[in-house]
Design goal:
The protein has 561 residues and is of the alpha/beta class. It has helices at 35-45, 76-81, 114-124, 139-150, 153-185, 187-199, 206-218, 220-235, 241-255, 261-289, 294-313, 319-385, 426-429, 432-446, 466-479, 492-495, 522-534, 540-552; strands spanning 2-10, 13-19, 24-28, 61-68, 91-98, 103-107, 110-112, 125-128, 392-404, 407-416, 424-425, 454-458, 485-488, 500-508, 513-519. Helices cover 55% and strands 18% of the residues.
Length: 561
């Protein structure tokens, strides 16, 4: 409930502090006194758009602060999700409008984005005005009314989870199908590249080996001649290195008895002899192995040209990179080949989920339709009580072609106010006054089935009077037993039934006029209701009538501030 409202420097209000009661309260005052200004300030703190023109002349900013008791509302999760301090008994909403046109919003002293303030505000107060009556023509609102009465919240939660799963599967399936279509268009290209690279039979290190072999084959004669020469120098017929080392070693051995160091030299020469002899043998073998092979040279050139062409085509510089390209094309082909299986599996899951959605939607639909007759009877009963004895009201159900977030039902409210008048959609048949009464009946009905936010009725009694006004007041008074209700009214029948009565008026200061508000005591209430009955000139009869209205409403000094 709204506990208090503080307004500073807003239009005609320099400073205003109002404490509100629970139950049913009324606000009255002469036309132009500022009731709409107070309502505008409240709308501001609930997240509506701001205008710097709203700032009181001569002020740098205006500020509106509302304090709520939200212990009856399931809002703890909302506060947690938005990282806000949760104080159920003392929740403070604050809005500041600067002269520059900028605005700031706070929840429990934490700055918030305006959309967060509005989301919270929508859950705390329902400002019911003539404009809001347009909701009755909104099929989503109509469906919500039916759901509240049918108690489908738990079923809708289960349905929503399955519906979200269905949407997720459908999105995944659509994405995979689109990807398959794009990839299929490239399939011939990918398959050709894969086959070409696989046909090349690429191996790691191949290019380096071939390039080395090409060098050898291209200089075979030169290499063979060089090896012949080296072999001759090492161990040929002419004096050669191996022979000279052998003779040097023998000479050192002969000196050993007379020259001790000669033995060490001899050992080193023997080691050199062994190495040179091995080299001579290997060189002799190598010179016989080297042969000019034009067929092999041609093959190596062709193979290298193939590798170079593939590298240029795929913009890489090594066989290893070509192998990576080949593997990538192979994986892409595997993906293409697996699309059909994946799509078949997803399609099966989608079909199963769609069936589960339809089954749950059917269960919800049955529950909605089962409560429709009770809704129709309650609305008609209340409308008759409000002076419309020939009212007929119906609920029409139509199946949607596809499930949506709230099921398969399209709901339409049908209404007829007069005898022999066919039922038609509310928006096409009901007048403004009839819509006001119908909306009041709807809210009075669902108040017993759901924890509604506080309601402010902004002159929805326009166009009514007498007994009908008294009955509307009775409905508001009954609503006040279940929730906080504040009615802005010009009708004494409604004003008399308020548990608390607030009077809005203008007060002239030295240089300007200000809007003021105060909570009336019993005597002041009698005077205000007498004014509403007879105008500025109050009579004994109007006072007596005022006292009678208050007495009939059960309002005494004990329960009126």
């Amino acid at each position: 409930m709204l506990k208090s409202l503080s307004i500073k420097n807003f239009i005609l209000i320099d400073k205003l502090d109002i404490r509100f009661e629970d139950g049913f309260s009324v606000l009255t005052g002469e036309t132009g006194a500022g009731k709409s200004i107070i309502l505008g300030a409240l709308a501001l703190v609930l997240g509506q758009r701001a205008d710097s023109k709203s700032i009181h002349d001569g002020s740098d900013k205006c500020a509106v602060e509302a304090v709520f008791d939200i212990s009856a509302y399931p809002l703890k999760t909302f506060f947690s999700e938005n990282d806000l301090e949760y104080d159920p008994q003392h929740c403070i909403l604050r809005r500041e409008i600067l002269h520059s046109g900028k605005s700031r919003a706070f929840v429990n002293d934490s700055p918030v984005q305006l959309n967060i303030l509005k989301l919270l505000g929508d859950r705390l107060i329902d400002v019911h005005s003539q404009h809001q009556n347009l909701l009755l023509a909104d099929t989503h609102f109509q469906l919500n009314v039916v759901d509240v009465m049918a108690g489908t919240a738990a079923l809708l939660h289960e349905y929503g989870a399955e519906y979200d799963r269905y949407l997720a599967i459908t999105s995944e399936l659509n994405g995979l199908t689109e990807k398959m279509q794009r990839t299929k268009a490239e399939e011939d290209y990918v398959r050709y590249q894969s086959e070409e690279l696989n046909a090349a039979r690429l191996t790691d290190g191949e290019q380096t080996d071939l390039e080395q072999e090409l060098g050898t084959l291209s200089h075979a004669e030169e290499i063979k001649n060089a090896l012949y020469k080296v072999a001759a120098l090492l161990n040929g017929d002419e004096p050669c290195a191996v022979q000279m080392i052998r003779e040097s070693c023998a000479t050192m051995d002969s000196l050993a008895p007379h020259f001790p160091r000669a033995g060490a030299f001899a050992e080193r020469l023997r080691t050199a002899f062994i190495d040179l002899n091995d080299l001579a043998l290997e060189t002799d073998v190598l010179k016989d192995d080297i042969e000019f092979n034009p067929e092999r040279l041609e093959w190596v050139n062709r193979r290298l040209n193939t590798l170079y062409a593939l590298q240029q085509k795929h913009h890489v510089s090594s066989v290893e990179a070509l192998i990576a390209c080949r593997n990538a094309f192979d994986r892409q082909l595997q993906l293409i080949d697996s699309f059909d299986e994946e799509i078949a599996a997803l399609t099966k899951r989608q079909t199963e989920s769609h069936r589960a959605v339809l089954d749950k939607a059917h269960e919800i639909s049955l529950k909605r339709k089962a409560t429709a007759e009770d809704i129709e009877q309650q609305i008609v009963r209340r409308m008759v009580m409000l002076g419309m004895p020939h009212t007929r009201f119906g609920i029409e159900f139509t199946d949607r072609p596809q499930p949506t977030s709230d099921g398969m039902d399209e709901v339409g409210f049908l209404f007829a106010a007069n005898k022999n008048e066919p039922l038609k959609p509310v928006a096409r048949t009901a007048s403004g006054g009839e819509i006001s009464r119908l909306m009041l009946c709807v809210k009075a009905m669902i108040a017993g089935y759901a924890a509604l936010p506080a309601i402010i009725f902004d002159e929805i009694d326009t166009g009514t009077s007498g007994e009908i006004a008294d009955r509307m007041a009775g409905i508001m008074q009954d609503l006040g037993q279940k929730m906080q209700v504040i009615a802005i009214t010009h009708l004494p029948q409604i004003a008399a039934k308020g548990k608390a009565h607030y009077f809005v008026y203008k007060e002239d200061g030295e240089d300007r006029t200000h809007t003021r508000i105060r909570c009336l005591d019993m005597q002041e209430r009698e005077h205000e209701i007498a004014r509403m009955l007879s105008g500025a000139t109050r009579t004994d009869a109007s006072f007596a009538n005022a006292r009678e209205l208050l007495h009939a409403a059960g309002i005494t000094n004990n329960n009126s501030r």
